[in-house]
Amino acid sequence: MSTTQDVQRHSVHTLVFRSLKRSHDMFLSNHGFLAPIDEKAEKVKKTVKARDCYGLVFDRVKRNNTLKLHSAERDLNLQHGAIQDGVNYTSDATMVAEGALVPASAVSGTGVVHIPAPATGNTVQSIIPRRAPAMPKPKWHAPWKLYRVISGHLGWVRCVAVEPGNEWFATGSADRVIKIWDLASGHLKVSLTGHISSVRGLAVSARHPYLFSCGEDRQVKCWDLEYNKVIRHYHGHLSAVYTLALHPNIDVLVTAGRDATCRVWDMRTKANVHTLTGHTNTIASVVCQAAEPQIVTGSHDCTIRLWDLAAGKSKATLTNHKKSVRSLVFHPTLYMFASASPDNIKQWKCPDGKFIQNLPGHNAIINCLAVNPEGVLVSGADNGTLHCWDWRTGYNFQRLQAPVQPGSMDSESGIFSMIFDQSGSRLLTTEADKTIKIYKEDDTATEETHPIHWRPEILKRRKY
Asked: What pLDDT sits at residue 392?
């Protein structure tokens, strides 16, 4: 008869602990007696690691040493030949410096020996110490002053557009009304109602009697100004539409907003020609021009995108800004544009978006930019400050604080949009105190009464 014996069951923890103890007891005698290090293998390991991390540096040092060796040999040969020809080197100052990029000349009483720079295929060359380029003197611009305040809206005035004939301008407000004003007198001409939420963007066509508007109600409207009626709607945006622009040459309307897309519409047929996707946050500004890039957008995702209109694709993404890009503006005569962000105002060169310079100093949330043909760039911020810049040099020649309407709080001094009229002599701003303010140049100012406080920084010579 076979007898069965019950096997004692243990928990997993006990079994693991026992296995660990047995392993410990097994290898305890070998503890502290590690295998000897193979010096050859260790040297190979260090060499491979150094080559992997610093290979480029090793190659550069080797090339420099080779170049110095060749230069020294050539100098000795040239010196020897010059002495044989009767020309002697009188001092160490006439010797060729090691690795010099500019050829030196040895002078004696009988003649001059020119020693050429080493002609090798190597691209490593010494850098010539030179002074940093001096800052160009900025052009003088007359200071700007406030000369008219227009009130009539019942909410924040969010956008403005000037008609190509320079006779009137339109404003859109949080009171859902578009108002058209006479530019010369500032009198109200007509009010257009139809939006059911805040109006955020306006544009007047230069070739048709049309006014285009967009708003937080997701609607994009085309108004016929001969009848003051809406004749077309452009449906497609999934959220609030914050900005729009018209192409200067072709019948194309570009809109963008909170759904992070930029839509290109055929003005006549209302067809959505392109939907430009790529931004990951609200698009706050869009501008158009006839040359490449035809469309540029700035977004709260801190990037600027340059778009190919024919292909409907992004051709470049500029990531220099660290904060939201709320405004863009093309220069009217130069092939450049500027972008505004709380970190800096930046200038770019078309068509590839090459960075030109920073305009630092406007430390606020900049909502809008405007530039006139004279090279005056103006930035307006959420705290009611206006900064005037010389476009070419980036010199900040004037700072203004927009006064708030009596009865308004100081926090209602924000500037939401601005534009120069067609002559560039008047600046229109729309603000949070429900007013439109018009600025013009001070006719009485001269270079003597308002001099340029130009103090270029004295840059130390860099040691190379």
From this structure: 93
